[in-house]
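Hey L., structure's done. Input below.
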Amino acid sequence: MFLLPPAQSAPLKHHLLYWFILCALVSLFFSEAIAVGFIGGSLFSLTNTASSLLTTQASNALASSIVSNSAQLFEDALADVIFAMTASSTAIGDTYRQDYSTGYEPSFYGYNATSNGKFTPPPLNYTTNSTLNKVAHVDTFIRPLYKLSPNVLSVQIGFDDSGLFKSYPGTGDNLNLGTYDPRTRSWYQAALKNQASPSSFAIANPYLSAFGRGWVLTTSKVFYNKVDGTVAGVISIQSQLSEFSKLLSSFTVSGSNVAVFTADPNGYVVASTKIKFDDLNPSPTYFSYKNTSSPTFSDSLWNQIISSSSSSFNTQTSNFGSTTFTDPQTNIPYLILWKTLSIYASDAASKSGTPSWVAVGSVPISQLQTIVDTTTANLKKSVPLSIGISVGVFAGTTLIVLLLVIVFANQIVKPLALLSAESSRVSNNIGGKDLWEGVNDKDVSRSGVDEMDKFKDSFYEMVFVKAVVEHELPSFESVEVQSILDLLPDEPPQYEEADPNVYANARAPAGGFGTFRN
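Output:
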């Protein structure tokens, strides 16, 4: 079998090929096993963590698309209202001076405790006439402002000296609403409380309009008498919460909800994609996180949102937060995301760094799970495909390596085979032939084994020296004297006169002892 090593008597070439190929196959096998294990482990790990990864990515995407963009639209709309109110306040203060009034419109109302619930034009006394004369030019810039600002539901002006109240648009004198003094209203008091500077403003918590306009958010600001710098009154702009809610709807996805709450323990809703704000329940707690959020937030969740928004609030950063929450009423799990808004309700809140609003979004986990399941299924499909590709690459690589091993092994075996053959010649021809008889120098040169020539020369020298040393006669110093005497004849040799011809024939070899007889 191929897996068994060749027999001991097999040629050297077979041994080399066997071990080269075996080493290559073992190395490739372990490399492939490591690669397959790494690919399989990575895909398995990625599949197991896909839900967490995709949920995080979805959270970031939803925070950017739903919460962040919705909050930004709300801030932009509120900034437009603040700008319009600031411009109106400045204009009223600059034109607040005695002038002859050209009359008053139905937009003026007077505070009359005995009106029996019916508002009539203010009585013409000294105080009311003075106020009317001072604001004779208000209509020229308030009415265009009201008509050109889509986020302005109404403009209200309360005057501090007379308690007069001016409203755009005018509602006539037939509303049976009882006594109304603007100086006692929350929006008026909030502006007086937050008049730290001439640019100060205040945004009151949402409330139900006394003029039947539904739930509104009122932004108010004090304006001053230009002559003596005293407080002349407060201007406020009302915006319907339903109008703010329309801004948020364009960024919601299926099943999701986003709302803007006051960032305080009450959590009043000022905008929502789920609430229509058409319920005229006068209780402000009716529109709070406790009964209007979707899902219904628990107190602990709301405290987590408020505390994290307050502790890490920074208007220069995104200030996102997220968590998972199960609706206690429906047992549906949601992903909850929130972002603290960078706009403040008053100068006091700005100085203290206390956030005024927080945008909160909720998305059912099931909506995200669809994405997770699809991606996980795709990952699972890629596992056998990746392993199959890896095995195919392994097979191709193995074939290439085997071919290269065979080619290189043949090249390595050639000089060793030549050396083995020459060793055989040395063993067989140590006596009388040329040791390298039959070797073709051209074949040796073609195989790239030019060092064989040097090897032959060295070997010749070695054999020559060995032959000479072994065939030398022993040194005379190594022979005992007695042995030499024993070789001498007993009688001295008898010499005869030799015939020259005989002498010539019997001459001893050069360096010999000559001939002699007994």
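Residues 269 and 349 are 18 Å apart (CA to CA). DSSP finds 13 helices and twelve strands in the chain.

-- N.
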